[in-house]
Amino acid sequence: MSVKDENSKKSMELFLKIGLNEKTACNTIENNKKLMSDLTAIIYEAGASDGCDKTTGNLLYCVATRLPISARMHRSKLIKYIMSFKLPAQRNAAIKYFEDIEFKDFNMNEFEEACGVGVDVSAEDIEKTVSEIFEENNNSILEKRYRTNEGKLLGDVLKKLPWADPQIVQKVIGEKMCEMLGERTAADNEKPVKKKEKKEKPAKVEAAAEAASKPCEEVLNPLPILPPPDHNIKVHTEVSFSDGSVLRYSNTRELLDKHLKATGGNVYTRFPPEPNGYLHIGHAKAMYVNFGLAKDRGGCCYLRFDDTNPEAEKSEYITHIEEIVNWMGWKPFKITYTSDYFQELYDLAVELIRRGHAYVDHQTGEEIKEYREKKMNSPWRDRPIEESLKLFDEMKRGLIEEGKATLRMKMDMQNDNFNMCDLIAYRIKFTPHPHAGDKWCIYPSYDYAHCIVDSLENITHSLCTLEFETRRASYYWLLHSLGLYMPHVWEYSRLNITNTVMSKRKLNQIVTDKHVDGWDDPRLMTLAGLRRRGVTPTAINDFIQGLGITRSDGSIINMNRLESHIRVELHEIAPRTMVVVHPLKVVITNMESDKVIELDAKIWPENKINDPSSFYKVPFSRVVYIERGDFRLKDSKDYYGLAPGKTVMLRHGFPIKCTDVVLSDDNETVVEIHAEYDPEKKTIPKKGFLHWVAEPAPGKEPLKVEVRLFDKLFYSENPGELENWLDDINTNSRVIVSDAFAVPTLKEAALGDKFQFERLGYFVVDKDSTPEKLVFNRTVTLKESSSKPGK
Q1: Catalytic: which of 99, 150, 206, 274?
Q2: SS3 at position 397
Q3: Cβ within 8 Å of residue 460, ≥6 positions away
Q4: Residue 756 · residue 575 · CB < 8 Å
Q5: How far apart (Å, rounded) are the C-alpha atoms in residues 651 and 29?
Q6: pLDDT in the model for residue 608
Q7: Where are the beta strands (DSSP E) in 570-654?
């Protein structure tokens, strides 16, 4: 093992000991040697080389990454404070302070005040505050006695005394309870009897709604703390160079005034997708952040197509992105393309060469990679400026073969941050551009174009996900080198969801290899797939809002959280109806063969007003169909379906009692059930309400529909980390039932119509429907884990 590998291994062990997640630790070691060195020194200085709790480790990482150079003199004192903090409130306050530090100058006195340093909460203070809280809750405590929620009392005390020791406060509360209530009685130790109330199923969904609306613990809404445009003269970031110099990048007053004059002081953001694939739910978060900030501040948000790679981009993707942004409820201020600025970008590249900050290089891709790893300069790095200008012009005029030359930015090849190692600005591609046509045969890279177009469009806040954090240095280096206005950059964690992949490359592979039926397959987390599955943009936006916008990277959100928000939304907007997925024939023997009764079924169960529009008509005849899973030959105490000799209730209909069973030749498979109905409803069972579909007329088969039932696309929670991730695809992720029966009113359903199939889940009409046969996709089950017969 080399010394470099040995050092990396030791650093990884050290960083994991202080609670960093593996992804953050690995990113630090591979991409930022200076940060690796600083963090290692801080850990040893803190005496935490043998490990510490995760919160303390998080704070040490904050000191390494967010403490400005101007405040390094305070580092030892800060570390001492951090290691002495025993109260969760102090640690949380310290983390909050560091999260906000990029928006203000570091101030030690301010830090000490924010974290309660030196604040002494006396026993008398705690006694007095506890007494006040007990006085406020006197009646409730006397009524509930020892069933009182002491955790809430503790929380109320700590709101008034945030720097009090929670353990001491808890002890005083316990003593106060004894003093007020005396000894515990036998009644105090009895478990409260929960009253069982009959609830309609939708009420359970409402409970889920309440749970879904609660954000996670790490919620951070950055919108209020992001600085206003006229404050964009402070230092954005500091970049360390291999020669020991440090540059602190910020706008000049002249640049900022020019920018403010162009924007009127308003917020300008941008949502900049590459038109090389379909948008997924991660892009929904990016939309929420960028369009959301603009909306919150009364500003504008561009939809900008980052179309710098003509080989991967298609007009199909551009059309899709525009459509999806609109569907998600966002209205762009203006739709632009990076290719709109190709001339300006070229002119600025020429200027960059003139200023000595770019050169034409002839290394191959493999050579560039090798030289960057070895931190060696290209042989052509110091060629004369005039020579690079001449060669760049030849590149533009198509006189140099593809792959024989690139324009590279002259940054710092010995820098520990690989994103400062002479990134490529232009490459030759003899490929027509979907938007710009065949005018150009050289195209700018993302690293070159992105920041410049942000500046040209006067973007005030450039918001992106955390994997771009190491690119901050190159972003500001380029704008500074060209003397351009610099937007404020802020990164947030990307959205990762269990049992799926979000990488465009992986998504493209499973679509291209036909593991799914296109980009809008309902099993995918693409926004087109979610829309086809019946998910609403409101549910998606509420889900993202509920998660919050954090800088904690590496976490994966459970799919169940998204499904909870979907249920909440569909519970409110999806009319009820009945479909039997796996039909089992039931003959009502005590009903005339030619008789059909028209019943009223409620579309909206909560609607107590007997408005005719709240009902739909359901035919009840001699032949009805129930779910095959709703019948058993042997009954049991915990089974509420139909069995021989047992009575169940048909929803919106009558009680029926099984009188006979017809079996197939194998003497096991049930072919048909005979039953009697109770037209007077004299024997309504307390449990066992089944959905059903009847023949609409004697001898006429019910409306036949196709139902598609979906499960998670991958077995593993994080398939993207698996080496053979394609082997993890769930081959049973879609089940197609082509002979389900539906009530007659569903015949009028149109594409995109959403319904709750009673007891089965929420469904939507699919685009594969024809006039002859409707196709329904199940959006989500009624509960997180459903054991309904139609599953």
Answers
A1: 274
A2: coil
A3: 229, 232, 259, 263, 266, 267, 268, 269, 299, 487, 488
A4: yes
A5: 62
A6: 60
A7: 576-577, 579-580, 583-588, 596-602, 615-621, 623-627, 647-650
Q: Which residues of 677-710 are buried (b: 16+ CB within 10 A; e: fewer)?
A: beeeeeeeeeebbbbbbbbbeeeeebbebbbbbb
Q: CA-to-CA distance for 645 and 521, rounded, in angstroms?
A: 45
Question: Do 431 and 458 form a contact (C-beta atoms < 8 A)?
Answer: no
CA atoms lying within 13 Å on the CB side of residue 247: 18
- Residue located via tokens 């009764």: 597
272-288 burial, b if ≥16 CB within 10 A, otherwise e? bbbbbbbbbbbbbbbbb
pLDDT tens for 117-156 read: 778 888 888 989 999 998 888 888 888 888 888 888 888 8
What is the distance between the alpha carbons of residues 133 and 121, in angstroms, rounded to a whole number?
A: 17
Return all residues near 627 (Cβ < 8 A) that are at least 6 apart.
580, 581, 582, 583, 584, 690, 691, 788, 789, 790
DSSP string, 561-575: HHHHHHHHHHHHHPP
**Do the Cβ atoms of 676 and 588 come closer than 8 Å?**
yes
Locus of tokens 């050289």: 442
The letter for the amino acid at 566 is I
Strand pairing of 655-663 and 647-650?
antiparallel
β-bridge mates for residue 764, sequence order: 754, 777
Q: Angle at the Cα of 79 (from 75 to 80), degrees rounded to 5?
A: 115
Task: Verify whether residue 285 is a known catalytic residue.
Answer: no
Read off the tokens for 78. 């800060």
Contact call for residues 688 and 643 (beta carbons, < 8 A): no
589 φ, ψ (degrees, to nearest 5): -70, -25
pLDDT of residue 670: 95
Q: Is 146 exposed, middle or buried (0-12, 13-18, 19+ CB in 10 A)?
A: middle
- The whole-number pLDDT of residue 682 equals 82
Q: In whole angstroms, what is the distance from residue 644 CA to residue 641 CA?
A: 10
Residues 550, 492 contacting (CB under 8 angstroms): yes
Q: Is 151 exposed, middle or buried (0-12, 13-18, 19+ CB in 10 A)?
A: exposed
Catalytic residue among 504, 622, 657, 734: 504
Edge-to-edge strand list for the sheet holding 693-694? 689-690, 647-650, 655-663, 670-677, 583-588, 623-627, 693-694
State the Cα–Cα distance between residues 59 and 564, nearest whole angstrom: 33
Is-catalytic flag, 504?
yes
Alpha helices in 484-558 (DSSP H): 504-512, 527-533, 537-547
CB neighbour list of residue 77: distance below 8 Å, 6 or more residues apart:
108
Which DSSP helix (H) or strand (E) runs through 694? strand 693-694
pLDDT at 220: 45
What is the rounded CA–CA span in Å between residue 252 and residue 545?
Answer: 36
Chain centroid to CA 770: 34
Q: What pLDDT score was predicted for residue 166?
A: 80
The reply to whether 274 belongs to the active site is yes
Q: With contact defined as beta carbons under 8 Å apart, do 464 and 447 qualify?
A: no
Whose tokens are 């203070």? That residue is 125
Q: Which residue out of 295, 494, 628, 783 is catalytically annotated?
A: 494
For the chain, list residues with pLDDT below 70.
1-5, 66-73, 85-88, 91-92, 95-106, 186-225, 552-554, 608-609, 784-791
Distance CA 540, CA 562 (A): 7
pTM of the predicted structure, to 2 decimals: 0.74
Strands 442-444 and 703-710: unpaired
For residue 774, give both structure tokens: 């409707």
